[in-house]
Amino acid sequence: MNSSSSGLWGYGLSIVETPGLCVDLQLAPLRRACEFQLYALFFTLPFEYYFRGQERTLFTSLKLQLLLFTSTWLCMKSSEVLRFGRVVWSELGRSLSNRILLAAVMFVLVQALAAILAPEFRGNAAKAAVKAGLGVLLAIAAADLAPGSKMRSADRRDPVRNSVIAISVSGACTALLGFGALAGIDAFEHIVHLFQRSEYFLGKRIRFLSTMEYPNTAGSFLSAALCASLALAVFSRPGSHRRWRVAWLGLAAVQGLALASTLSRGAVGATMVAILTATWLLRDKIGRSYRRTALATCFVAILGGVSGLYFAHRATEGEGTPMRKRLARYGLEAGEEIKYLLPNHAYRETIGVENASSFQWRGGTYGVAYRWHSLSADETWPLNPGADFPAAVAPEQNVWLPVSLITPSQEGEYLLTWFVVYHDGETRELPDSYAPGILCVIDPAGSNSVNGLSEKARRYLDAIREERRNLSGIVPPRRSELWPAAFRMFAQRPLLGMGPDNFRLLKSRYMDIPMKDEKILANNLYLETLSGSGILGLASFLWLLWQFGRTLAAKVAAEASPSGWSASYLGVAYLAAFALHGLVDYFLKFTPTYLLFWLLLGILCARGRESQETYANRL
Fold first, then answer.
1. Residues 6 or more apart from 236 whose CB is under 8 A from it?
2. What's the pLDDT tens digit per position in 63-75?
3. Which of 593, 556, 562 is nearest to 578 (CA)?
4. What pLDDT does residue 557 have?
5. What is the full DSSP assignment across 92-144?
6. From the centroid of its chain, how far is CA 414?
7. For the ranges 257-266, 289-298, 473-482, which has the lowest average pLDDT?
8. How far apart are CA 502 and CA 96, in angstroms?
9. Lowest-pLDDT range, 120-129, 194-203, 522-531?
């Protein structure tokens, strides 16, 4: 049977013609759908929306996108298997080099073994091991979608360059939304609050985080976005207008300012070193004027970042006055700063209450209540019952309690405060059991604009935020306390550690000042890995990083197109920033930065297809 083939390089496919049949054309839409979903993943990394149930987070938009992307890609590969048999699997194995693929698989196997042999919390460790395996699958999928350097003549169809563009544009949108919210623009505030409502401070300076969960996480992503914008500016496509280079540099400037505003010392310092490293290693590929532009941008970032960190450090001097111990901590609705409610209306809410005292709260005897304070009349109302605890609450126990809340009949601005109360003939407040105040705007029109607040309400809102910082009841541990705990865990089980992601659950046993907050990690990429999976886990991860860098170095030497150079610049800068920032933070726990690492590893280290035979030639 005669057959002929023609390359559909825009999608990395081959067309195989047989009598009455053209088999590959049906796979082109699936591959293109995968490519667009890949760009969407990169773009929406900082926009993770949480779908919340009554008590806990059920799912997020990023996880939904991740499920859709992997499902579509697996569907495409399954279709190729049905059409081409084992050939596709050999093609899949060559998406990444044998060494980097072996390093990634070895890392996953060590994580799985450490989870199986974990002395405690094996279920949690198993989830972390599965997450590592999913990361490798994502890297393979991204590599499979990336074309080779010889296929980049049509840049508009180049998934690598388009991914770099998606990261750059996403970082710019994140920066602009964050600055708009800080400026008090209602539309920007509504968008940012759709994703998160938290605020973080260093001294008295607010830390930039925009739509992301934590300032340091925002710093890590903005670092990658800044590097992507610089890569696009320095390596413009042949024939592109100069205004594009100016546009990319403009985005880089906005991202650099946002990065400095996160007040993340690790992110700013790592980014400065990363930009210098990438510019030096690709100096032969960068024109002299472009090199000066990149170095000047780096200098501005250094100056802005260092000055911001200096003044933030000065702002923190003299702080740290010890606070009275609080007997209760609150979460969910009781943790909000401002509410917009209807007058004389009953609301059903769920608040979280932790018993931070040294005694038991008896069921039926203890409960929660609330009190209104009118800002306009300067009048405090009596306690109103919220709900009683149905069962005893032991010290350090956290409960979720449905409560009733009835708003005042008169519209206006009020301060709402929750208390733990006890009944001994009359209802009394438990001393030092109050929640931070909540500013409530009672308005029949349902207005929800911060700009519409009175001057007095704004002062109260500032005081509420200060109160939440000073009376949070949870003092974050310093790295000088977390790092020794990680070493103690490693010393107890040096070969395979205590199980992946188990540091946050076990750290209180190894710290001089026990901490019950299970969200706090080791704040060090390497110590987190060492404590969770031992010396084998750290060695396998360092080997993966080494192969990542080794592959990028080979690409720097082999690339011959501006598109390839921009990807290499981003890769070198990102890996340097990731490795350096990892000395003081850990990001593979958080979905946006976890996805960024594995997707970039795949798309930047892809082998490409120009060295592979087409499907038709193999048949």
1. 244, 245, 562
2. 999 999 999 998 8
3. 593
4. 81
5. HHTSS-HHHHHHHHHHHHHHHHHHHT-SS-HHHHHHHHHHHHHHHHHHHHHHH
6. 35
7. 289-298
8. 30
9. 194-203
Strand, helix or coil at 476? coil
Residue in the block written with tokens 């505030």: 189
Could you give the C-alpha distances from 536 to 114, 130, 149, 504, in angstroms and in order? 9, 17, 35, 20
Question: Is residue 424 classed as helix, strand or coil in its secondary structure?
Answer: coil
Q: Of 352, 347, 314, which is closest to residue 331 (Cα–Cα)?
A: 352
Determine the residue type at 339: K
What are the boundaries of each domain within the chain? 330-470
Tell me the pLDDT of the chain averaged across its residues. 79
User: What separation in angstroms does the CA of 493 have from each of 110, 121, 483, 524?
Assistant: 14, 15, 16, 18
Q: What tokens does 203 get? A: 């001294």
Residue with tokens 């003299």: 318
Residue 335, pLDDT above cutoff 70: no
State the Cα–Cα distance between residues 174 and 212, nearest whole angstrom: 9
The listed CATH number (2.60.40.10, 3.40.50.2300, 2.140.10.10, 3.30.365.10) that belongs to domain 330-470: 2.60.40.10
Q: What is the DSSP letter of 393?
A: B
d(CA 481, CA 467): 25
The β-bridge relationship of strands 338-341 and 438-442 is parallel
The C-alpha atoms of residue 491 and residue 378 are separated, in whole angstroms, by: 59
Distances 597 to 139, 308, 320, 387, 594 between C-alpha atoms, Å:
9, 27, 36, 46, 5
CB 504 within 8 A of CB 485: no
119 CB contacts (<8 Å, ≥6 apart)? Answer: 493, 498, 499
Confidence of residue 585 (pLDDT cuts 50, 70, 90): very high
